[in-house]
Amino acid sequence: MAWYDEAFFYHIYPLGLCGAPKNNPGGNTPTDGEAHRLREMWPWIEHLRTLGVTALYIGPLFESGSHGYDTTDYRRLDRRLGNNDDLKDLVRFCHENGIRVVLDAVFNHSGRDFFAFQDLRERREQSAYKDWFCNVNFWNNNEYNDGFSYDNWGGYNLLAKLNLRNPQVVDYHLETVRFWVQEFDIDGLRLDAADVLDFGFMHTLRGLAGTIKPEFWLMGEVIHGEYQRWVNEGMLHAVTDYALHKALFSGHNDHNYFEIAHTLNRFMQNGIDCRKLYSFVDNHDVERIHTKLHDKRHWLPVHILLFCLPGIPSVYYGSEFGIDGHKARGGPDDEIRPALSLADLKARPNFCLETVRALGQIYRTEKALAYGDYEQLHLSTGQYAFRRGDVLVAVNNEDREVEVTIPCAGGEYRGALHGRRIKAENGKLQLRLAPCDGEILIPESRDFAEYEPIGSLPQPAVAFKEAPSAESIRDTDGNRTDAEPAVDLSMPYENMTIGQLQAAILQKLAANGPVTEQMRRDVAENVWRDSLLNWVKSFR
User: Fold this and answer.
1) Nearest alpha-carbon partner for 61 in 159, 184, 171, 201
2) What's the rounded Cα separation, in Å, for the pair 425 and 6?
3) CA-closest candidate to residue 318, choices 17, 99, 4
4) How far is 82 from 396, CA to CA, in rounded Å?
5) Angle between helix 199-212 and 167-184 (nearest 10)
6) Cis peptide, bond prior to residue 60, ω within 30 of zero
7) Do 156 and 34 belong to one domain?
8) Are 216 and 231 in the same domain?
């Protein structure tokens, strides 16, 4: 098996973690004391090793004007972080600590200061790069007064969409990947906006991956869709599992384990090997999991499922400390991409940190959690149990102690999290679970590591009061007070704002039948313009 089949990932947004300026000043590389911010990450790499992390997904890293996804130079580390030697040394230090490195690759679009776009602005119709971008129209204009228009990502002309059916653009990107491997010795790529990338380009990239480095890994950012379109032998190795991400927090907030189990079952029925999907509970585009959970004690069962359900687990930087982070609708993402002091975070005992450390050790040791087949053993709204190979897993989302009956082959088991020994009788195992808790049961009949039980530290503070459901927010006449105003559906979808697209989808759903609260949440939580456009266009 390849390294990524049993990887435990850690995800870092470096411009945020390192406290880089929001905008790139340009000019020469800084020479003051802040010139090499990337080197501030050395203690974090040592921290990752203590968690059992085996792979780092980091990015965006290359020269850009602002948030990193408006790339202006694909072959130079962003000057706010340092220079190329800093990145070389970071990757080497990671490898010395047994950690693979995967970079964020922004191939769908570029920033406006990218050399090809600058040439297009200067030379217009005579530019050799006019066909590097999609649908350039010299009879139009935009808010930058370029005297032409072009396709973009997400409705933002800051992000000019590259023409990935142009062989010159494809060759440029492929040469860039070769450069990254030769220069920095990276181990894989996370493809930004893979749900709108050209499939032919991704197929070509997969062919390159097999030649530039053994087990070079390709993972795509996909929000919605049939994952098997991307994850197959001719395309990518993995995609982001946004469906499970959503189910993990809402399944706990709604006290409904059916949502989580049915999400997984639906994938498997469609022939998807969920072990190849990239699992996460938060990232640089969504709110922190500690913020999303109504009852903070659910942090534990959520993370047990993250590490034990089929998938490649990932933790977003700082979330192992249980930090909060709200996503501002339509505003900056500073709160979910903050600068952090590792020394300050580690200065006091932390239940969340110790839990991730324990789960990381269990995941690395118990190979069944990476390779084992999955079988559902018990499912109710409040309890969920399943088998991964010969390992049994059970979680409880209720605010009370419960006893769960788990069918099994028999024998004795030991709890990896709490250290309990339990014997199965008559093909059943009776497991008592504390409120908002869970257990990972390892067969006593085989050798396994002595895990240090968690529980010596207090859990996160008890329950936040649950937010009122959208259905309960009504005025005295019974009308919703938080509803989006009706949208003129004759308006071109491409001209709509994100809020208008969400409202249009709700109108389309309402025309087809009752709109449930779950449907409303699904729409409200989707803030990606391209995904919303695809969704609203899917209605007949």
Assistant:
1) 184
2) 32
3) 17
4) 46
5) 30
6) yes
7) no
8) yes
Domain that holds residue 140: 109-163
Structurally, the chain folds into a number of domains equal to: 3
The pTM score is 0.85
Distances (CA, A) of 45 to 51, 297, 532: 10, 28, 37
**Least confident stretch, 180-189, 249-258, 333-342, 453-462:** 453-462
Q: Which of 238, 262, 280 is the last residue of a domain?
A: 238
Angle at 533 between CA 527 and CA 538, to 5 degrees: 125
Tokens of 512: 């087809």
Question: Within a domain: residue 287?
Answer: no
Q: How far apart are CA 356 and CA 457, in angstroms?
A: 13
Q: How confident is the model at residue 459 (pLDDT cuts 50, 70, 90)?
A: low
CB 56 within 8 A of CB 101: yes
Mean pLDDT of 476-499: 61
pLDDT of residue 458: 57
Residues 244, 276 contacting (CB under 8 angstroms): no
Provide the pLDDT for residue 479: 36
Specify whether 84 is located in the same domain as 176: yes
**The token pair that represents 320 in the structure block:** 């192992």
Burial of 534 (0-12, 13-18, 19+ CB in 10 A): middle
The token duo for 145 is 């007064």
pLDDT tens sequence across 206-259: 999 989 999 999 999 999 889 999 999 999 999 999 999 999 999 999 999 999
Of the candidate ranges 182-196, 324-338, 479-493, the one whose mean pLDDT is the lowest: 479-493
Tokens of 219: 């993972």
CATH number at residue 95: 3.20.20.80
Report strand pairing: 437-443 vs 421-424: unpaired
356 contacts 34 by C-beta, under 8 angstroms: no
